[in-house]
Amino acid sequence: MYMKIKLIPERCIACGLCQTYSDLFDYHDNGIVKFHQEDDLLEKEVTPDEGILEAVRECPTRALLGD
Ligand code: SF4
User: Fold this and answer.
1) What is the domain range of residue 59?
2) Per its UniProt record, what Pfam families does this chain match (predicted)?
3) Which whole-number Å values give the CA distances from 19 to 3, 4, 51, 55, 57, in the listed order?
4) Is the CB of 42 inside a 6 Å radius of any atom of ligand 1?
5) CA 13, CA 63: separation in Å to the nearest integer?
6) By alpha-carbon position, which residue is closest to atom 8 of ligand 1?
7) Which residues of the chain register pLDDT less than 70?
8) For the chain, what is the domain count?
9) Residue 7 beta carbon below 6 angstroms from any ligand 1 atom
10) According to the model, what pLDDT value does residue 42 have?
11) Residues sharing a CB contact under 8 Å with residue 1, sequence separation 6 or more, in sequence order
């Protein structure tokens, strides 16, 4: 089962929370969210796990979307 994760970097406040839940997420030098080892990608199909779902749920600005 796959899930599409979407990043909305303009909403990200660089709080650093999402990477504590999942290594799917990483940050540009300015702390804004990106996918691990991907500088430009804004959508990715992943196999969801609890950490990814938690990151989507807990992002304070809803900069991470999953569907
Ligand atoms: S949890 Fe949300 S606001 Fe915080 S770094 Fe991740 S995407 Fe940005």
Assistant:
1) 3-66
2) Fer4_15
3) 18, 17, 9, 8, 13
4) no
5) 9
6) 12
7) none
8) 1
9) no
10) 98
11) 47, 48
